[in-house]
Write a sequence for this structure.
């Protein structure tokens, strides 16, 4: 599960958030991953809009910049205060407008036949594939300090997304496996622990 604060996971994510995508294809791949992992389509009286929710403000700001670049429109940025003890605030990016939202999803290669698809098109390039893996990690990944105990994982809600990630990691020659578990009473989630040679994970997002 993702950790923030001063943890090694948090430090790793801060480092990754300063990664400059090689080209627009890498931007599309990273953004597609973020939308699939922590985004949702919401239908209201105002129409269709896209919401991204994260407890990492820098990630939301990064996606705000990507949205502006790809759609020419500014998304809304909101903060939701969590009143539970020791819970971080949630940061929300909201892109409004059916035409804008579906146009963006189409550009990202994850909208087809009226629904959000799995792995986006265009991940044949190594840099784009690694950008997609990086986006998933920024949303729902965690890693321990390899100098202490090596462990890297992604916590994902969709089995299809998990299978896609396994296939992408295999292309990176990183061995992984799936572990299914229950969180609370209702929510069923999936987790991918990885044990490999120390620092091998760095190939995933460079």
């Amino acid at each position: 599960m993702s950790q923030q604060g001063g943890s090694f996971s948090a430090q790793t994510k801060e480092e990754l958030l300063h990664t400059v995508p090689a080209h627009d294809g890498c931007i599309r791949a990273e953004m597609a991953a973020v939308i699939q992992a922590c985004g949702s389509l919401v239908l209201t009286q105002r129409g269709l809009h896209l919401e991204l929710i994260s407890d990492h403000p820098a990630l939301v700001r990064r996606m705000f910049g990507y949205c502006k670049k790809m759609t020419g429109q500014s998304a809304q940025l909101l903060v939701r205060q969590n009143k539970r003890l020791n819970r971080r605030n949630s940061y929300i990016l909201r892109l409004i407008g059916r035409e804008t939202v579906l146009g963006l999803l189409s550009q990202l290669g994850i909208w087809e036949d009226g629904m959000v698809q799995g792995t986006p098109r265009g991940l044949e390039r190594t840099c784009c594939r690694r950008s997609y893996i990086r986006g998933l990690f920024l949303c729902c990944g965690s890693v321990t300090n390899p100098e202490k105990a090596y462990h890297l994982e992604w916590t994902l809600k969709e089995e299809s997304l998990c299978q896609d990630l396994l296939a992408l990691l295999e292309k990176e020659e990183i061995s992984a496996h799936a572990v299914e578990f229950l969180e609370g009473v209702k929510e069923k989630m999936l987790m991918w622990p990885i044990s490999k040679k120390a620092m091998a994970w760095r190939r995933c997002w460079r």
